[in-house]
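Hello,

Our lab assistant flagged a job as stuck in the queue for most of the afternoon. It eventually completed. Since we weren't sure the result was trustworthy after the delay, we are filing this so someone can double-check. Below is the sequence as submitted and the structure that was eventually returned. Let us know if re-running is recommended.
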Amino acid sequence: MSISPSERPSPAAAAAREVFVARLRAELHTCEEHPQDVSAARRAYREAACLLSRFDPQRLRLPGEAAATGGAVLELVDDCTTLGMPDQAGWSLKSEVREEALRGLAGPEAARRALECHVGELPAEAGPERFCLDYLSGRPPATDRLTAVELADALQAVLWLSRVPGTTGLPDTAELQLALERARLLEPLERLVRSPFQGRARELAELREYVVPSGGSAVAGARPDGMQHPGPVPPLVVHGPGGMGKTTLLAKFVLDTIHDPAGCFPFAYIDFERPTLSIQEPLTLIAEAARQLGIQFPAHRAELDALAHECQEAARSQREGQERVSQLHELATTRAVLGRRSSQEFQSMATGRETDLIRRLADVLRRAVADRKDGENPEDPPFALVVDSFEEAQYRGSPVVGRMVAIYLSFQSIYPRMRLIVSGRAPVEHPAKTVDPLDIELGELDPEAAVGVLTSCGVTDPEVARALADRVGGHPLSLKLAARAATLAGAGAERTCELIRSLPERRHQVFRRVDQLLVQGILYDRILSHIGNEEIRRLAHPGLVLRVITPEIIQEVLAEPCGLRVATPEAARALFAEFSRLDLVEPARPDAVRYRADVRAIMLRLPGGDRTTVMRDIERRAVEHYAGRDGLEARAEEIYHRLRLDENPRSVEERWLPGVERFLAGAQQEMTPRAAGLLTARLGGGTPDQVAAGADQEDWERIAAREVEDLLAQGYAQAAFERLGRRQPWTPCSPLHALFAEALSRLGRQEEARRATADAIDAAERAGCGERRLELLLLSARLSEEAGDPESAGRALRVAEDVAVGLGQDLEAMGALLARARLTAGADGVDPEADAQLADRLRRLPDAVLADRPVLVRAVASQIYDRAPGALDHALEVVGLPADDETLDSLGAAMRRATGRQPALLGRVMEILDEAAGPSRQPAGGAPTGIAGILRLARDRGTLDTLARRLLAVPDRSGEIVAGVAAAMGAGTGARTAGQAASGPESGRPTPEEGSGPAGSEER
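-- returned structure --
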């Protein structure tokens, strides 16, 4: 309750209360004591622990103590954090406490005495503590011999000791940090060659000759056969069967180069298996190359890091653009016009951005190399760009291949000694290539190297190693399996001879691949036969057909076909616990394991013999098991096993759900060509000729359509047309009909394109292919418009709208109506009827439906904004602005034009920008001052849509700002630019007094 003036406490009571509050605050904030309040005992324990990364407080001793007293537990309880698991927790000083303790040490000798008290308790492996002792004892380690982990520990030790008064003789922290970064750069490569590298002397020499030719000009390219290449030097492709050692070869080549002082040159190693890199986003390659070159050229580190950051930002923008393209291709009424136009624009802009950034990277490299030149070596050294795991992008028509060609040509134009080495499939035909790539095909290891592999893997008897190598051959994976099988067989001569006799004799080269599959299968069988638990052994081989093993799967799917009785869930869990300890499996998720990919890849390609019936029974049970369960993963497994059982792809496709794609990626390799055809048609990517030949006609058409779409997006109309001339006649609903007409149109054969479209529309109508008919009608309208026949175009669009309405497809109808509005706008200025109908559809459709098609909604809003007040605000609320750079550029340009023409608006606009940027407008690198920088900051903060909505309320008489918001909304969809919109017809546009703000409820 309140206290009146007459009821106030006495001065004595008030003083007592202040004392109580002070004591309570001290108890609650013991960790904030001032240095002068630290007791001598507490300070001593802090100093005893300040050079320990982790310690047991019960065993922490002070210098001079014979044994630990446990006093550190009470003294340091508020100064430490705990590390590790609760049952094995250690303590570590908080950073601010450690800093104070280090600065409070009497000197290096005191630091050494504190560490020596705990020498016996330090971990056996090197750590910061042991490096501290080395430095304090005058035995500094040679940093060039340390691993990345050791360098990190040494750096930590130096950072600690640099705080101790009087400590001298420490290495420079910047140089140590650079050594650490360089070691981390090489660490993935060194991990690959940890086992002794065997053979491949010829291939290593060819790689070296390609990068650093032994004769001729340093600028000229050289083949392994010594021939010179005028002009651009072609890339070199290293290819071979899986498991042959392509990645290991590249790692060995790079490391040999690095460790050869006479032949060292800058490099970048790009492995697309790394999660931070995307094979579909070449900008991530450029960013990673810049990062690695920054480590190799510290003087240019800041510039290269900034370039890498710019690449990441550009990649983010490209993702938005790619998503826009994908959405426009999902609807039939936006695919034929907006979709294909946006695809070509996206590929062109992406290529332009990537080549610009790679040229800038090459220029930095050129300057960095020039800074290091001396009189003895006036020529630029080569730069090797090594790209690993490129298989996914290597298929005919791949946009990634086309963009990579542009990247390497652009780099070579600035830095001629750039050399591109790619590990992947054999070179594929692509219209972008200007020269034939060179290639190195990895074959089997020679006999001496094969014996070396077996010996390094534990086969100690030379005679056994030679006999195994003779039977197994030189495939690295087969040799490792043979070594494992021999080790499990034991040292007995009889068992070893039995193993060797079980392997087939080597046959003629034409059978070599079949031999390898058979050998690998036999070796895995031998390995599985050594599983000690009989029940697990009976499950192990048949279970290979399953991608995931759980206790439930063991009980319901595996047990009975394998001759086991598993009556209870407890028994299934016990078997699963034993099964999960096999080294042939790895964790998939909690309570689930999967076979290692290399194991399944081999065993599933082998004929099963007597096991075939059992394994098919397991797959049928798996279908029943997963069909009764909900969720995308269960549905994906059901589809997987139906395809493995070779069910009709059309019936399997009926079980498809959006989202199962990510669970089926890569499964094509485990299927028959017919089943793989369905997966490839659904998932995309490259298609081996065997799969394409075995695919159903409908699946083949979808595979071919994706390849033709890619070729058209890159501007290769002739190549697309040639690709279309296969496996005809096509089905009436085939996507190839529209693409055939599109290719004819781009080749200038307009009348043929219109005739082909008309014929395909009739066929689609007769076959009841509503979606395909819609796409063809939109294409027909576009072709008619281009031929100067707007009446035919309008008729086609009205028919398309009627068809979409008849199908109950409101969004398809909106797409057709948008095309009609744009057609009439281009011919006569504005079509009030089309715009009004668009506005009506936008109002009537539920927000939840609109939110699923943000690109279409934005395109519609940007089309009708000047005749439908509130449309832009509604779109901003439901789907927001795109987040790519084109959006920001459109919005920023409009704001600059408007404030330039009406300076009075500047204060209001800057107020909106400042509020959207927020307090984070003061980053460490300085605040962005330009409109573009502030807009990017607003995008990063998630306030861009709010900013745009506030801009709509600015009383801009010129209409520039609202037109800029509209242009930003429709970025990438062929919408009017801000300048076009602002200078367009004035009828229907809100007056300055009305503003451009949110619509009222009656307008929504």
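-- support follow-up --
The delay was a queue issue, not a problem with the job. The result is valid. The chain has 46 helices and eleven strands. The CA atoms of residues 470 and 506 lie 8 Å apart.
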